[in-house]
Each structure stands twice: as structure tokens, then as C-alpha cells.
Design brief:
- This protein is mainly α.
- The protein has one domain.
- It has a two-stranded antiparallel sheet with strand order 1-2.
């Protein structure tokens, strides 16, 4: 890894930021719900794929999606402007995170 800064404190910040981003990817994969029934095997495979995915691939698949944000009345509408095979996972994850977490 090349860090563009010259002292250890600055490099430490880069390492903490990369650790947090990697942790975000892992939590997204672990919190992805698996619904029983017809799609259970596919959901388990997608969950496993996200956990094992490289971070650069994760960014391209689930984070860097073109979207339009529209403020209308009393709500905010997010419109996804493109589709990829991981969009369904992203929407399932957003729906599960919308509800309160239960231990």
C-alpha cells in the first residue's frame, strides 16, 4: 500500500478509514436477509458472495450507483438510474435496515 503522507499519524488515519470501509462491506453482507422459500439458496449465495467480495467490486456493485434524489412534499424519493445484478440485494438490505434491529 502506498499512502501519500509522510508521518505515521496520517498513515494511521488511512488504515483506520480502510478498516472501517472493509467492516461496512462485511456488515452489509452479514445483515442481508435470507428469506425462506423459493429464493433461499440464491439469497444465501448472494450473502456469501458479498462477504467474500473484493472491496473495489463491492463499491462498483452496491455503492457507486447513479441515483436521482427528489424532494417532494414531505418525503425524499431515491430513484436508481441504472440496474446491475446486485441491485436486488441492495434493495433487500435497505428494506431490512429500515426496520429496527433485534438481537
Amino acid at each position: 500500500m502506498r499512502n501519500p503522507l509522510d508521518n505515521l499519524h496520517s498513515n494511521w488515519v488511512y488504515m483506520v478509514a480502510s478498516s472501517l470501509s472493509w467492516t461496512l462491506k462485511a456488515w452489509c453482507g452479514l445483515l442481508l436477509p435470507v428469506q425462506p422459500g423459493l429464493w433461499e439458496a440464491r439469497h444465501k449465495e448472494q450473502k456469501r458472495s458479498i462477504v467474500r467480495m473484493e472491496f473495489k467490486t463491492f463499491l462498483g456493485a452496491m455503492m457507486r450507483l447513479p441515483a436521482q434524489i427528489v424532494r417532494t412534499g414531505r418525503r425524499i424519493v431515491y430513484r436508481l438510474m441504472s440496474w446491475n445484478p446486485w441491485t436486488g440485494c441492495l434493495l433487500r438490505l435497505a428494506e431490512s435496515l429500515r426496520r429496527p434491529l433485534r438481537c
